[in-house]
Design goal:
The chain is α+β, with helices and mostly antiparallel strands. The chain folds into four domains: about 70 residues, no CATH class; about 55 residues, LysM domain (Membrane-bound Lytic Murein Transglycosylase D, Chain A); about 70 residues, Resuscitation-promoting factor rpfb fold (Single Sheet); about 120 residues, endopeptidase domain like (from Nostoc punctiforme) (endopeptidase fold (from Nostoc punctiforme)). About 25% of the residues lie in helices and about 40% in strands. It has eight helices and 20 strands. The strands form six sheets. A six-stranded antiparallel β-sheet has the order 15-20-16-17-18-19. The protein is elongated. One of its GO terms (biological process) is proteolysis.
Length: about 375
């Protein structure tokens, strides 16, 4: 190799070495830059503590909003809401080599609301149930069952011990909420006496009905628990109707001699038979539009000037008792919870049921006869 070729060869070697050196230096610089590069994240900061790191400012702010709204009732107007310690979204930078654990919005919210869990032993009190205990400790019934699999919850007694976790949220959210609700106004029951109603008998003269009122309250809560309630407005939407009960003081004189009355037993039976085929209506007293068993009997006898209670049980004490074998037309044939009018031949006319209405049947159709009462001869 001549001198010219040697010089040329050395130039290539030097040039190659230079290129290699540049490449190594570039890689080193890139690695160094990468090692010292930083990335931006957003953190939810509670007081001085970072509770969760998220990818964006909007995600961090969404976490804060959802934590606050967790304790707001649906339909409520929020008048004020604060957190202690305060929550805020803060920009954070981390070296690329030390990336933080990034949370999703849902996980961050759950973590803040749950905070720390402390295992406790709960002693069951009178009136407790899995539902009331779950509400008290802000856990689900399923969680209570899972933590106490050995326990038979169908036989839960005061003094029993349950394993529970007490949740301590990372923040206390205090909210003032304006809540409007409709509440029931319970009707009042009024009792009065009347000699026109038989003694030991009560009738409902007027049915009661509940009213309604609209109430607007300012409710202060701490983590969902009510600590103060102020009624701002109460407006009656519907007034309640009183329930009026009449207590009887009257005494029925049902003599053994029917001459005092406008009719006799046979006349009573014949009059009662006029309404066969008419409907049975529970609580009814109409001989044409419908009556129940005692309503039918009292309406028939009312026609003859005799007042009776609308009560099959009370009717068992009227008049004088005779045997079934001695029964005459017009007598009351009394059963447990039922009554009819004897018409002779072992038959009674009575308001049987909704299917048969007012009909004639044998005395044994309803069941055993308790007593037969003679009101008129």
């Amino acid at each position: 190799m001549n001198i010219l070729e040697q010089i040329k060869s050395k130039k290539y070697v030097i040039a190659g070495a230079f290129v290699l050196a540049i490449a190594v230096l570039g890689a080193a610089v890139f690695t160094t830059v990468k090692a010292y590069a930083v990335e931006e994240y957003w953190a939810v900061q509670i007081g001085s503590k970072t509770a969760a790191v998220l990818n964006s400012e909007s995600s961090a702010k969404k976490v804060i909003k959802e934590v606050k709204n967790h304790y707001i009732e649906e339909g409520a107007q929020v008048k004020a809401i604060t957190c202690d310690p305060a929550m805020k979204a803060v920009k954070k930078t981390y070296k690329a080599s030390k990336k933080p654990k990034v949370s999703s919005v849902d996980n961050a919210v759950e973590y803040i609301l749950t905070g720390t869990k402390k295992r406790v032993t709960y002693t069951v009190k009178s009136g407790d149930s899995p539902w009331t205990i779950a509400s008290k400790y802000d856990v689900t019934v399923r969680e209570i069952l899972n933590m106490n699999e050995e326990k038979d919850f169908s036989a839960l007694y005061p003094g029993d011990k349950l394993k529970l976790y007490k949740i301590n949220p990372m923040v206390t959210v205090t909210a003032k909420q304006q809540i409007t609700t409709e509440e029931t106004i319970a009707y009042e029951t009024v009792t009065k006496e009347s000699s026109e109603v038989l003694k030991n008998t009560t009738i409902v003269e007027q049915k009661g009905s509940n009213g309604k009122k609209k109430i607007t309250k300012l409710v202060t809560t701490e983590n969902g628990k009510t600590v103060k309630t102020e009624v701002q407005e109460s407006k009656v939407i519907k007034s309640p109707t009183k329930r009026v009960i009449v207590k009887g003081t009257g005494i029925l004189s049902a003599p053994t001699d029917g001459k005092t009355y406008q009719g006799d037993g046979q006349a009573v039976a014949q009059y009662a038979l006029k309404f066969v085929g008419n409907p049975y209506v529970y609580g009814g007293v109409s001989l044409t539009d419908g009556a129940d068993c005692s309503g039918f009997v009292l309406s028939v006898y009312k026609y003859f000037g005799i007042t009776m209670a609308h009560d099959a049980g009370v009717m068992r004490s009227y008049g004088k008792e005779v045997s079934l074998a001695e029964a005459q037309p017009g007598d009351l044939v009394c059963y447990y919870g039922h009554v009819g009018i004897y018409i002779g031949g072992g038959q009674i006319v009575h308001a049987v049921n909704e299917r048969l209405g007012i009909a004639v049947t044998g005395t044994s159709y309803i069941g055993p006869v308790m007593t037969v009462r003679r009101i008129v001869e």
